[in-house]
Write a structure and sequence with these properties.
With 409 residues, the protein is an alpha+beta fold. The protein has 12 helices and 19 strands. Helix 8 (275-284) packs across helix 10 (346-361). The longest helix has 28 residues, at 3-30. The N and C termini lie far apart (82 Å). This is Cell division protein ZipA.
Length: 409
């Protein structure tokens, strides 16, 4: 073989190797980024097992429970349910060997116990739901409900009231409710077995996102409440239909002009993400799995409170046979403005969460149309939200209040 032929063969081999290497690199670049095993990543980063390589805080590597706050009274921070810091005690053998130290005179002097690790123990979601079930439904409020008193001739048992309740709790597209005035504490409550009531009331919501209460729905409300009153032998006194329907339209007009749902989109700059990769990074800033596949939530600071933020991505990717092979190019971060109390600083936390996720996952923050959101644009949005909060407060419909959550639903 001549020198020329040998040179051409070598060059051809190098070109072929280069093509193979390039194709391999492109394939790897297009593969979705997957979540790292905490133990492996800790060792690789020189960190003790169980610590976040991005910081100094301990990370619970157990898979979190799938919990989502319910519409009702506050849900705790960190898990969508209440959490308690429970010390992990040392076993008895360690306690015996470390609890005291001998001193020269032969006695033992108790020494301070060594620091113990703590873990956040989530309360069972079933227990949380049961504890909140009696209070989860907001009470009737004259601000957003049509209310009619129902007066029995004498005391009526809770058993009779419950048996006479309508089978449905809706009138058209509006929630319908019956409450009784408790003889024990003098407060309105959902009728309960074993109680006695001298006064009850029925109500229907004036407006929600389906629109204002109309004449047909008001007539259905009257028929349903009257049937219930007749069943327990009580008298009723309904308000004027025209006045209530006009009030419903006025409330609906206000709600339509002050309903806000804010959303950011995080888009991958280069490599796509796997669902596990997204979940791992979201969990580091406080998100927990929601009740639906492809959804995570940032819980509020109080039990039963609506989630502050929601993070969602393709549910089909989350339910795939091998989710780590699913590729996500974008995830959505959303805020239900009227459902979250102003005191939680939801927009500030939304910006912080979006920025943290964009940096850690190599993404960019955009609007729904794919246009990047600048700091100035976010400042303008924040200023507009403050004006919205002021308007809601002035109408006694503060964001996150039971009345606001019912009206904007």
């Amino acid at each position: 073989m001549s020198t020329l032929q040998l040179s051409l063969a070598i060059i051809g081999g190098l070109v072929l190797a280069g093509v193979i290497a390039y194709n391999t690199w492109v394939t790897r670049q297009n593969e979705p980024r997957t979540a790292r095993d905490p133990a492996v990543s800790s060792a690789a980063d020189g960190q003790p097992g169980g610590f976040d390589p991005l910081g100094d805080e301990a990370v619970d590597t157990r898979p979190p429970e799938r919990i989502e706050p319910v519409l009702g009274e506050p849900l705790g921070e960190g898990s969508g349910a209440a959490v308690a810091d429970t010390p992990i005690s040392h076993d008895e053998g360690d306690a015996g060997s470390q609890g005291s130290q001998p001193v020269p005179d032969g006695t033992s002097t108790p020494q301070p116990a060594p620091p113990v690790a703590t873990m956040r123990e989530p309360v069972s979601p079933l227990k949380t739901a049961l504890s909140a079930s009696a209070d989860r439904k907001p009470k009737l409020d004259a601000l957003i409900d049509v209310i009619t008193p129902i007066e029995p001739e004498g005391a009526v048992s809770g058993d009779a009231v419950v048996a006479a309740l309508p089978t449905t709790r809706r009138v058209g597209s509006k929630p319908f409710a019956v409450e009784g005035l408790s003889d024990l504490n003098g407060e309105w409550e959902v009728p309960r077995l074993g109680q006695r009531y001298h006064l009850l009331q029925a109500g229907v919501q004036l407006a929600n996102r389906a629109g204002a209460l109309n004449d047909i729905e008001f007539s259905e409300f009257v028929a349903k409440a009257q049937t219930f009153a007749d069943a327990i032998g009580a008298a009723t006194d309904f308000p004027d239909m025209r006045a209530e329907v006009a009030r419903a339209r006025e409330l609906d007009a206000f709600a339509s002009g002050h309903d806000a749902q804010l959303g950011f989109t995080l888009r991958a700059r280069r490599s796509a993400w796997s669902p596990g990769f997204v979940a791992q990074h979201a969990a580091r800033i406080g998100f927990v799995p929601g009740a639906l596949p492809g959804r995570m939530v940032l819980p509020g600071s109080e039990r039963g409170q609506a989630p502050i933020l929601s993070l969602s991505f393709d549910a089909h990717a989350a339910m795939a046979e091998d989710p780590e092979k699913s590729a996500l190019r974008e995830v959505a971060l959303s805020l239900e403005v009227t459902h979250v109390p102003r005191s939680e600083q939801p927009f500030v936390r939304m910006r912080e969460a979006a920025t943290a996720l964009a940096e850690s996952m190599e993404g960019v923050i955009t609007d729904d149309a794919g246009q990047p959101l600048s700091t100035d644009t976010m400042d303008v949005i924040g200023s507009d939200l403050e004006n919205l909060y002021d308007a809601l407060d002035s109408h006694d419909l503060s964001a996150g209040s039971p009345q606001a959550r019912r009206l904007f639903s």
